[in-house]
Amino acid sequence: MTEIHVRPLAPESDLPALVDLLTAIRHAEGNPTPATADELRPALAAPRTRRWVAPEPDGDGLIGLAVLFHQTPDRCYGDIRVHPAWRRRGVGRALSDALAAGAAELGTRYLAIDVAAGQTGGAADQTGGAADNREALRFLLSQGYRYRGDTWALSLPAAAELPAPVWPAGYEARSLAEVDDLPLFVDLCNATFGDLWGHHENTPGLVTVERMAEGLSDPAGAFLVFGPDGAAVGQCRTFPAAADAPPDAPHVLDQPGIVPDHRAAGLHAPLALTAARWLRELGARPIRLESWGESAATIALYETLGFALVEHEVSYVRGVGR
């Protein structure tokens, strides 16, 4: 077998070959749009990101790319892209080793690779299709990755009707602007998302009042759910589109989070409706609901409200240190 070498990406000198590599991969995936240097330069400057490439053994081109994003102190996300002509020849394995070593150097605990559900994604040296998706999963399992959770995105059309939410007896929602208790909201976020994969709340102490204050869009569009005994048991946030954004730019609804003891109470749907109706008052735009770590059953509830699934990725994770 040809020996595969991996080295750090040299952003400027490697840029022409990187454009050719990503263009070849897009064409193999059925995307006729070529990559361009102008498109790639901003991505190459992204913070907390490292890249490695596999040079062509007997040429000047590149046959593979690995990208590592240091999301939290505990977690890195990786992605691997391999030239169509070099798949199943050990390139993906060499790049996977580089990702694992890079994540370990950063002191993280986990390295995650997301694979598009029902498709390949870039992680496993394959082309598209169900059979190749199975190959992708076999590759990840052979590298020590294990299933950890799902990432979902759904879209609600701008013209969709939004009925009034119906809450189970004793439950109600109030906006953060009304409650005016940001520490309570932060505690609630940590309680609802701590055990759901893909959230910053997976790392205790990372989501603080200061951090939430920086990222909160509008307290009137953040909601808390209170139970029959008056305790807070659920929350969600919204991120409205800018007023001058194109008409098809969506408002964003961050997933409803419910504390574990109340997840069977039927709160996800009325909380999503509460947030969506508030966003609708700001203007008739599509609404994008983003969710990490939730079950397929919860996503199905959102579909009954008129949301359509537009993205579904599956996270496979391996331990790398600490």
Identify the notable features of this structure and list them briefly.
Aminopeptidase; 2 domains; 14 strands; four-stranded antiparallel beta sheet; ten-stranded mixed beta sheet; elongated; 9 helices; 26% strand; 322 residues; alpha+beta
CATH level-two architecture of the largest domain = 3-Layer(aba) Sandwich
Principal-axis shape: elongated
**Going by CATH, what is the homologous superfamily of the largest domain?**
Gcn5-related N-acetyltransferase (GNAT)
Task: Give the tally of structural domains.
Answer: 2
Number of strands: 14
Mean pLDDT: 93
Q: Report the radius of gyration as a whole number of Å.
A: 22 Å
Which strand-content bin applies to the residues? Answer: 25-35%
| CATH class membership of the largest domain | Alpha Beta
Q: Helices and strands: which structural class?
A: alpha+beta
CATH topology (fold) name of the largest domain: Aminopeptidase
Q: Segments where pLDDT lies below 50 for 5+ residues? A: 119-131
Structure commentary:
This protein is of the alpha+beta class and 322 residues long. The chain folds into 2 domains: 7-144, Gcn5-related N-acetyltransferase (GNAT) (Aminopeptidase, 3-Layer(aba) Sandwich), CATH 3.40.630; 154-312, 3-Layer(aba) Sandwich (Aminopeptidase), CATH 3.40.630.30. Helices cover 30% and strands 26% of the residues. The chain contains 9 helices and 14 strands. The protein has helices spanning 15-28, 37-44, 91-105, 130-142, 176-179, 182-193, 209-215, 268-280, 296-304; strands spanning 7-8, 49-55, 62-72, 75-82, 110-116, 146-156, 172-175, 223-226, 232-236, 238-239, 251-254, 257-258, 287-292, 308-319. A 10-stranded mixed sheet has the order 1-2-3-4-5-14-6-13-11-10, with helices on both faces. A 4-stranded antiparallel sheet has the order 7-8-9-12, sandwiched between helices. A hairpin with a 6-residue loop joins strand 2 and strand 3 (62-72). The chain starts with 6 loop residues before the first strand and ends with a strand.
